[in-house]
Amino acid sequence: MCKVTVVGAGLSGCEAAVMAARLGADVDLIDMKPKKHSPAHKSDLFCELVCSNSLKAARIDSAAGLLKEEMRRLGSVCLSVADKCAVAAGGALAVDRDIFSASVTDIIKNEPRIRIITDTVKEIPKDGVTVIATGPLTDDALARDIENCCGRDNLSFFDAAAPIVTFESIDMSVAFSASRYSEGDGDYINCPMNKDEYEAFYDALITAETVPVHGVDSDIKVYEGCMPVEVLAKRGKDSVRFGPMKPVGLRDPRTGHRPWAAVQLRRENGKGTLYNIVGFQTNLKFGEQKRVFSMIPGLENADFARYGVMHRNSFINSPKLLSNDLSLKRNSQIFFAGQLSGVEGYMESAASGIVAGINAANRVSDKATVVLPNYTMIGALLGYITDSTVDNFQPMGANFGILPKLDDHIRDKRERYAALAARALDYYNRRK
Asked: Closest Cα partner for 139 from 155, 160, 156, 123?
Protein backbone atom coordinates (compact mmCIF):
# COMPACT_ATOMS: atom_id res chain seq x y z
CA MET A 1 0.00 0.00 0.00
CA CYS A 2 1.17 3.56 -0.72
CA LYS A 3 1.92 6.17 1.90
CA VAL A 4 -0.43 8.63 3.61
CA THR A 5 1.00 11.89 4.92
CA VAL A 6 -0.71 13.53 7.89
CA VAL A 7 0.26 17.11 8.73
CA GLY A 8 -0.46 18.03 12.35
CA ALA A 9 -0.51 15.89 15.50
CA GLY A 10 -3.45 17.38 17.32
CA LEU A 11 -6.56 15.31 18.00
CA SER A 12 -7.68 15.17 14.37
CA GLY A 13 -4.21 14.40 13.01
CA CYS A 14 -3.57 11.65 15.55
CA GLU A 15 -6.94 10.05 14.83
CA ALA A 16 -6.27 10.20 11.09
CA ALA A 17 -2.78 8.72 11.43
CA VAL A 18 -3.86 5.84 13.67
CA MET A 19 -6.93 5.04 11.57
CA ALA A 20 -4.97 5.02 8.31
CA ALA A 21 -2.26 2.84 9.88
CA ARG A 22 -4.79 0.37 11.23
CA LEU A 23 -6.20 0.05 7.72
CA GLY A 24 -2.78 -0.91 6.40
CA ALA A 25 -1.34 2.38 5.17
CA ASP A 26 2.19 3.51 5.94
CA VAL A 27 1.85 6.95 7.53
CA ASP A 28 4.20 9.90 7.80
CA LEU A 29 2.93 12.05 10.69
CA ILE A 30 4.55 15.49 10.48
CA ASP A 31 4.40 17.97 13.36
CA MET A 32 6.55 20.94 14.28
CA LYS A 33 6.78 19.94 17.96
CA PRO A 34 9.09 19.91 19.84
CA LYS A 35 11.18 22.25 17.67
CA LYS A 36 8.42 24.83 17.45
CA HIS A 37 5.13 25.56 19.23
CA SER A 38 2.10 27.57 18.22
CA PRO A 39 1.22 30.53 20.50
CA ALA A 40 -1.37 28.34 22.28
CA HIS A 41 0.67 25.20 22.84
CA LYS A 42 3.17 24.59 25.65
CA SER A 43 3.70 20.82 25.79
CA ASP A 44 5.93 18.77 23.50
CA LEU A 45 3.29 16.00 23.50
CA PHE A 46 0.76 15.26 20.78
CA CYS A 47 -2.99 15.76 21.31
CA GLU A 48 -2.46 18.66 23.70
CA LEU A 49 -5.69 19.95 25.26
CA VAL A 50 -5.34 23.72 25.48
CA CYS A 51 -8.69 25.28 26.37
CA SER A 52 -10.30 22.73 28.66
CA ASN A 53 -9.94 19.21 29.96
CA SER A 54 -13.68 18.62 29.48
CA LEU A 55 -14.86 16.68 26.45
CA LYS A 56 -18.45 17.70 27.21
CA ALA A 57 -21.50 15.64 28.13
CA ALA A 58 -21.23 11.88 28.48
CA ARG A 59 -24.86 10.77 28.24
CA ILE A 60 -25.85 9.37 24.87
CA ASP A 61 -29.08 11.38 24.64
CA SER A 62 -26.96 14.56 24.33
CA ALA A 63 -25.35 15.69 21.09
CA ALA A 64 -21.84 15.59 22.59
CA GLY A 65 -22.44 12.17 24.15
CA LEU A 66 -23.82 10.71 20.94
CA LEU A 67 -20.84 12.03 18.99
CA LYS A 68 -18.43 10.34 21.39
CA GLU A 69 -20.31 7.05 21.32
CA GLU A 70 -20.21 7.03 17.52
CA MET A 71 -16.48 7.67 17.69
CA ARG A 72 -16.08 4.71 20.03
CA ARG A 73 -17.93 2.54 17.54
CA LEU A 74 -15.45 3.62 14.85
CA GLY A 75 -12.43 2.79 17.04
CA SER A 76 -11.37 6.28 18.18
CA VAL A 77 -7.93 6.32 19.77
CA CYS A 78 -8.76 9.55 21.65
CA LEU A 79 -11.89 8.08 23.23
CA SER A 80 -10.17 4.84 24.20
CA VAL A 81 -7.54 6.88 26.04
CA ALA A 82 -10.00 9.41 27.47
CA ASP A 83 -12.13 6.67 29.02
CA LYS A 84 -9.05 5.31 30.79
CA CYS A 85 -7.83 8.63 32.19
CA ALA A 86 -11.18 10.21 33.04
CA VAL A 87 -11.54 12.38 36.14
CA ALA A 88 -14.71 13.15 38.09
CA ALA A 89 -16.77 15.78 36.24
CA GLY A 90 -20.41 15.11 36.98
CA GLY A 91 -22.21 14.23 33.76
CA ALA A 92 -19.28 15.20 31.53
CA LEU A 93 -16.27 13.27 30.31
CA ALA A 94 -13.18 15.08 31.54
CA VAL A 95 -9.61 13.84 31.52
CA ASP A 96 -6.24 14.34 33.15
CA ARG A 97 -4.68 16.45 30.39
CA ASP A 98 -1.09 15.30 30.88
CA ILE A 99 -1.96 11.59 31.03
CA PHE A 100 -4.26 11.95 28.03
CA SER A 101 -1.63 13.59 25.81
CA ALA A 102 1.16 11.28 27.00
CA SER A 103 -0.93 8.17 26.39
CA VAL A 104 -1.94 9.14 22.86
CA THR A 105 1.67 10.10 22.11
CA ASP A 106 2.86 6.68 23.30
CA ILE A 107 0.32 4.92 21.08
CA ILE A 108 1.51 6.95 18.09
CA LYS A 109 5.19 6.25 18.81
CA ASN A 110 4.56 2.53 19.19
CA GLU A 111 2.48 2.12 16.03
CA PRO A 112 4.88 0.41 13.59
CA ARG A 113 3.23 1.86 10.48
CA ILE A 114 3.55 5.47 11.67
CA ARG A 115 6.78 7.38 11.11
CA ILE A 116 7.03 10.62 13.11
CA ILE A 117 8.72 13.54 11.36
CA THR A 118 9.53 16.75 13.26
CA ASP A 119 9.29 19.62 10.80
CA THR A 120 7.41 22.82 10.06
CA VAL A 121 5.45 22.17 6.86
CA LYS A 122 5.42 25.28 4.71
CA GLU A 123 3.36 23.99 1.80
CA ILE A 124 0.90 21.20 1.08
CA PRO A 125 2.83 18.06 0.07
CA LYS A 126 2.57 17.61 -3.67
CA ASP A 127 2.97 13.83 -3.89
CA GLY A 128 0.62 11.15 -2.62
CA VAL A 129 -2.40 11.34 -0.35
CA THR A 130 -2.27 13.97 2.39
CA VAL A 131 -4.45 14.88 5.37
CA ILE A 132 -4.06 18.51 6.49
CA ALA A 133 -4.97 18.72 10.18
CA THR A 134 -2.98 21.70 11.42
CA GLY A 135 -5.70 23.31 13.50
CA PRO A 136 -6.96 26.85 14.08
CA LEU A 137 -3.48 28.34 14.48
CA THR A 138 -1.96 26.95 11.29
CA ASP A 139 1.60 28.20 10.69
CA ASP A 140 1.74 31.32 8.51
CA ALA A 141 3.70 29.81 5.62
CA LEU A 142 1.38 26.81 5.27
CA ALA A 143 -1.66 29.08 5.64
CA ARG A 144 -0.41 31.13 2.70
CA ASP A 145 0.02 27.97 0.62
CA ILE A 146 -3.51 26.86 1.54
CA GLU A 147 -4.69 30.29 0.40
CA ASN A 148 -2.89 29.82 -2.90
CA CYS A 149 -4.42 26.37 -3.31
CA CYS A 150 -7.97 27.21 -2.22
CA GLY A 151 -8.27 30.89 -3.06
CA ARG A 152 -7.72 33.97 -0.89
CA ASP A 153 -11.42 34.33 -0.05
CA ASN A 154 -11.74 30.72 1.11
CA LEU A 155 -9.50 30.79 4.20
CA SER A 156 -10.57 32.72 7.29
CA PHE A 157 -8.25 33.78 10.10
CA PHE A 158 -10.84 35.17 12.48
CA ASP A 159 -13.99 33.52 13.76
CA ALA A 160 -16.75 36.04 14.49
CA ALA A 161 -19.87 33.91 14.70
CA ALA A 162 -23.41 34.73 15.76
CA PRO A 163 -25.55 32.24 17.69
CA ILE A 164 -27.62 29.65 15.84
CA VAL A 165 -30.99 28.39 17.09
CA THR A 166 -33.15 25.48 15.96
CA PHE A 167 -36.22 26.36 13.91
CA GLU A 168 -38.52 24.15 15.94
CA SER A 169 -37.70 26.10 19.11
CA ILE A 170 -38.75 29.49 17.63
CA ASP A 171 -42.21 30.65 18.73
CA MET A 172 -43.81 31.45 15.37
CA SER A 173 -46.94 32.76 17.09
CA VAL A 174 -44.75 35.75 17.99
CA ALA A 175 -42.11 35.75 15.25
CA PHE A 176 -43.10 36.11 11.61
CA SER A 177 -41.59 35.37 8.20
CA ALA A 178 -40.94 38.39 5.97
CA SER A 179 -38.27 40.20 4.01
CA ARG A 180 -37.83 43.94 4.29
CA TYR A 181 -40.25 45.90 2.10
CA SER A 182 -41.86 42.56 1.12
CA GLU A 183 -38.92 41.73 -1.15
CA GLY A 184 -38.21 38.02 -1.69
CA ASP A 185 -40.36 35.22 -0.32
CA GLY A 186 -40.26 35.95 3.38
CA ASP A 187 -36.70 34.69 3.61
CA TYR A 188 -36.15 35.93 7.18
CA ILE A 189 -37.81 35.17 10.47
CA ASN A 190 -38.41 38.39 12.39
CA CYS A 191 -38.72 38.78 16.15
CA PRO A 192 -40.48 42.11 16.84
CA MET A 193 -39.97 44.22 19.96
CA ASN A 194 -41.97 47.08 21.41
CA LYS A 195 -40.19 49.96 23.16
CA ASP A 196 -40.35 48.44 26.66
CA GLU A 197 -39.07 45.05 25.43
CA TYR A 198 -36.23 46.73 23.56
CA GLU A 199 -35.12 48.82 26.52
CA ALA A 200 -35.12 45.83 28.87
CA PHE A 201 -33.14 43.82 26.32
CA TYR A 202 -30.70 46.69 25.76
CA ASP A 203 -30.01 47.09 29.47
CA ALA A 204 -29.38 43.34 29.83
CA LEU A 205 -27.10 43.31 26.79
CA ILE A 206 -24.77 46.11 27.85
CA THR A 207 -24.39 44.76 31.41
CA ALA A 208 -23.91 41.08 30.51
CA GLU A 209 -20.60 39.33 31.29
CA THR A 210 -18.14 38.86 28.44
CA VAL A 211 -15.41 36.27 27.96
CA PRO A 212 -12.01 37.59 29.13
CA VAL A 213 -9.64 38.08 26.21
CA HIS A 214 -6.08 36.86 26.78
CA GLY A 215 -3.29 34.78 25.26
CA VAL A 216 -3.46 34.21 21.51
CA ASP A 217 -6.77 36.08 21.21
CA SER A 218 -5.52 39.27 22.87
CA ASP A 219 -4.34 40.81 19.61
CA ILE A 220 -7.67 40.41 17.79
CA LYS A 221 -8.65 43.63 16.06
CA VAL A 222 -12.42 44.22 16.08
CA TYR A 223 -13.60 45.18 12.60
CA GLU A 224 -16.75 47.24 12.04
CA GLY A 225 -18.27 44.45 9.96
CA CYS A 226 -17.99 41.86 12.72
CA MET A 227 -18.20 43.95 15.87
CA PRO A 228 -19.66 42.18 18.92
CA VAL A 229 -23.26 43.25 19.31
CA GLU A 230 -22.64 44.16 22.96
CA VAL A 231 -19.77 46.48 21.94
CA LEU A 232 -21.96 48.17 19.34
CA ALA A 233 -24.74 48.54 21.91
CA LYS A 234 -22.45 50.47 24.27
CA ARG A 235 -22.06 53.21 21.66
CA GLY A 236 -25.55 54.46 22.48
CA LYS A 237 -29.08 53.37 23.25
CA ASP A 238 -30.20 53.40 19.61
CA SER A 239 -27.00 51.98 18.12
CA VAL A 240 -28.31 48.43 17.65
CA ARG A 241 -31.84 49.67 16.82
CA PHE A 242 -30.31 51.52 13.89
CA GLY A 243 -27.99 48.59 13.19
CA PRO A 244 -28.75 44.83 13.23
CA MET A 245 -32.10 45.41 14.98
CA LYS A 246 -33.44 48.06 12.63
CA PRO A 247 -37.18 47.57 11.99
CA VAL A 248 -37.45 49.47 8.71
CA GLY A 249 -39.37 47.75 5.95
CA LEU A 250 -41.08 45.35 8.35
CA ARG A 251 -44.66 45.19 9.61
CA ASP A 252 -45.73 43.08 12.56
CA PRO A 253 -48.81 41.12 11.43
CA ARG A 254 -50.13 41.05 15.00
CA THR A 255 -50.30 44.84 15.26
CA GLY A 256 -50.23 46.00 11.65
CA HIS A 257 -47.47 48.46 12.56
CA ARG A 258 -43.72 48.65 12.28
CA PRO A 259 -42.11 47.28 15.48
CA TRP A 260 -39.87 49.48 17.62
CA ALA A 261 -36.98 47.08 16.91
CA ALA A 262 -36.64 43.69 15.27
CA VAL A 263 -34.17 40.82 15.42
CA GLN A 264 -33.84 38.93 12.14
CA LEU A 265 -33.01 35.23 11.79
CA ARG A 266 -31.56 33.89 8.55
CA ARG A 267 -31.73 30.30 7.37
CA GLU A 268 -28.45 28.56 8.12
CA ASN A 269 -28.86 25.34 6.15
CA GLY A 270 -30.78 24.06 3.14
CA LYS A 271 -33.18 22.02 5.25
CA GLY A 272 -34.26 25.08 7.23
CA THR A 273 -33.71 23.38 10.59
CA LEU A 274 -31.21 26.01 11.82
CA TYR A 275 -31.40 29.81 11.88
CA ASN A 276 -28.64 32.36 12.48
CA ILE A 277 -29.32 35.49 14.60
CA VAL A 278 -28.27 38.11 12.05
CA GLY A 279 -25.64 40.61 13.18
CA PHE A 280 -25.32 39.14 16.67
CA GLN A 281 -21.62 38.25 16.68
CA THR A 282 -20.79 38.27 20.35
CA ASN A 283 -18.17 37.68 22.99
CA LEU A 284 -20.66 37.14 25.82
CA LYS A 285 -20.26 34.10 28.04
CA PHE A 286 -22.43 31.22 26.87
CA GLY A 287 -24.69 31.37 29.92
CA GLU A 288 -25.18 35.09 29.36
CA GLN A 289 -26.06 34.51 25.71
CA LYS A 290 -28.75 32.07 26.78
CA ARG A 291 -30.12 34.52 29.38
CA VAL A 292 -30.02 37.71 27.32
CA PHE A 293 -30.95 36.40 23.88
CA SER A 294 -33.86 34.44 25.36
CA MET A 295 -35.37 37.86 26.14
CA ILE A 296 -35.96 38.32 22.41
CA PRO A 297 -39.67 37.79 21.69
CA GLY A 298 -40.12 34.42 19.99
CA LEU A 299 -36.82 33.07 21.35
CA GLU A 300 -37.87 32.63 24.98
CA ASN A 301 -37.46 28.85 24.69
CA ALA A 302 -34.85 28.78 21.95
CA ASP A 303 -32.49 25.82 21.65
CA PHE A 304 -29.03 27.14 20.84
CA ALA A 305 -27.35 24.81 18.37
CA ARG A 306 -24.24 26.99 18.63
CA TYR A 307 -23.40 30.00 20.76
CA GLY A 308 -21.60 33.00 19.33
CA VAL A 309 -17.81 33.12 19.49
CA MET A 310 -15.05 35.58 18.67
CA HIS A 311 -11.47 34.34 18.52
CA ARG A 312 -8.55 33.70 16.21
CA ASN A 313 -9.36 30.67 14.14
CA SER A 314 -8.13 29.52 10.75
CA PHE A 315 -10.70 27.55 8.78
CA ILE A 316 -11.45 26.97 5.13
CA ASN A 317 -14.74 27.57 3.34
CA SER A 318 -15.50 23.86 3.41
CA PRO A 319 -18.96 23.94 1.75
CA LYS A 320 -17.33 25.40 -1.35
CA LEU A 321 -14.05 23.49 -1.25
CA LEU A 322 -14.64 19.98 0.15
CA SER A 323 -16.44 16.91 -1.12
CA ASN A 324 -18.51 14.99 1.41
CA ASP A 325 -15.61 12.59 2.05
CA LEU A 326 -13.48 15.59 3.22
CA SER A 327 -11.28 15.63 0.12
CA LEU A 328 -10.69 18.77 -1.91
CA LYS A 329 -13.02 19.00 -4.89
CA ARG A 330 -10.15 20.21 -7.06
CA ASN A 331 -7.67 17.59 -5.80
CA SER A 332 -9.05 14.36 -4.33
CA GLN A 333 -5.59 13.42 -3.01
CA ILE A 334 -5.81 16.14 -0.34
CA PHE A 335 -8.07 15.78 2.71
CA PHE A 336 -8.79 18.33 5.43
CA ALA A 337 -9.68 17.49 9.04
CA GLY A 338 -10.06 19.17 12.41
CA GLN A 339 -10.90 22.79 13.11
CA LEU A 340 -9.24 23.83 9.87
CA SER A 341 -12.03 21.97 8.06
CA GLY A 342 -14.72 23.95 9.86
CA VAL A 343 -15.76 21.74 12.76
CA GLU A 344 -15.78 23.30 16.22
CA GLY A 345 -14.62 21.44 19.31
CA TYR A 346 -12.13 18.83 20.46
CA MET A 347 -14.27 15.76 19.80
CA GLU A 348 -15.67 17.15 16.57
CA SER A 349 -12.09 17.66 15.36
CA ALA A 350 -11.14 14.13 16.37
CA ALA A 351 -14.23 12.69 14.66
CA SER A 352 -13.37 14.42 11.40
CA GLY A 353 -9.85 13.00 11.71
CA ILE A 354 -11.23 9.46 11.98
CA VAL A 355 -13.20 9.86 8.75
CA ALA A 356 -10.33 11.60 6.96
CA GLY A 357 -7.96 8.80 8.02
CA ILE A 358 -10.34 6.10 6.79
CA ASN A 359 -10.82 7.85 3.48
CA ALA A 360 -7.12 8.62 2.98
CA ALA A 361 -6.31 4.93 3.50
CA ASN A 362 -9.10 3.96 1.13
CA ARG A 363 -7.86 6.43 -1.47
CA VAL A 364 -4.32 5.02 -1.57
CA SER A 365 -5.68 1.46 -1.83
CA ASP A 366 -8.17 2.39 -4.58
CA LYS A 367 -11.20 1.64 -2.42
CA ALA A 368 -14.36 3.71 -2.26
CA THR A 369 -14.32 6.47 0.35
CA VAL A 370 -16.81 6.41 3.22
CA VAL A 371 -19.62 8.91 3.81
CA LEU A 372 -21.61 8.30 6.98
CA PRO A 373 -25.40 8.76 6.75
CA ASN A 374 -26.80 12.15 7.70
CA TYR A 375 -28.87 10.73 10.57
CA THR A 376 -25.68 9.91 12.48
CA MET A 377 -24.08 12.78 14.40
CA ILE A 378 -20.74 12.46 12.61
CA GLY A 379 -22.43 12.13 9.23
CA ALA A 380 -24.64 15.16 9.88
CA LEU A 381 -21.73 17.27 11.11
CA LEU A 382 -19.51 16.50 8.14
CA GLY A 383 -22.52 16.80 5.85
CA TYR A 384 -23.11 20.28 7.22
CA ILE A 385 -19.56 21.53 6.67
CA THR A 386 -19.61 20.19 3.09
CA ASP A 387 -23.17 21.32 2.25
CA SER A 388 -22.89 23.61 -0.78
CA THR A 389 -26.18 25.34 0.17
CA VAL A 390 -24.64 26.82 3.35
CA ASP A 391 -23.86 30.53 2.94
CA ASN A 392 -21.65 32.70 5.16
CA PHE A 393 -20.07 29.55 6.56
CA GLN A 394 -18.94 29.49 10.18
CA PRO A 395 -17.58 26.49 12.11
CA MET A 396 -20.12 24.09 13.61
CA GLY A 397 -20.11 21.68 16.53
CA ALA A 398 -22.27 18.66 17.29
CA ASN A 399 -25.93 19.48 17.93
CA PHE A 400 -29.26 17.81 17.31
CA GLY A 401 -30.41 20.65 15.05
CA ILE A 402 -28.29 19.34 12.16
CA LEU A 403 -29.94 15.89 12.21
CA PRO A 404 -32.96 15.18 9.99
CA LYS A 405 -36.25 15.04 11.85
CA LEU A 406 -37.79 11.81 13.07
CA ASP A 407 -40.74 10.41 11.14
CA ASP A 408 -42.88 10.73 14.27
CA HIS A 409 -42.69 13.99 16.18
CA ILE A 410 -41.90 13.58 19.87
CA ARG A 411 -42.78 16.64 21.96
CA ASP A 412 -40.63 15.83 24.99
CA LYS A 413 -37.12 17.05 24.21
CA ARG A 414 -35.27 14.41 26.24
CA GLU A 415 -37.31 11.60 24.66
CA ARG A 416 -36.82 13.10 21.19
CA TYR A 417 -33.06 13.29 21.65
CA ALA A 418 -33.00 9.70 22.93
CA ALA A 419 -34.87 8.58 19.81
CA LEU A 420 -32.47 10.50 17.54
CA ALA A 421 -29.54 8.84 19.32
CA ALA A 422 -31.09 5.39 19.01
CA ARG A 423 -31.64 5.91 15.28
CA ALA A 424 -28.01 6.96 14.80
CA LEU A 425 -26.55 4.08 16.82
CA ASP A 426 -28.70 1.57 14.96
CA TYR A 427 -26.58 2.35 11.90
CA TYR A 428 -23.41 1.34 13.74
CA ASN A 429 -25.09 -1.80 15.09
CA ARG A 430 -25.96 -2.84 11.54
CA ARG A 431 -22.54 -1.76 10.22
CA LYS A 432 -20.65 -4.40 12.22
From this structure: 123
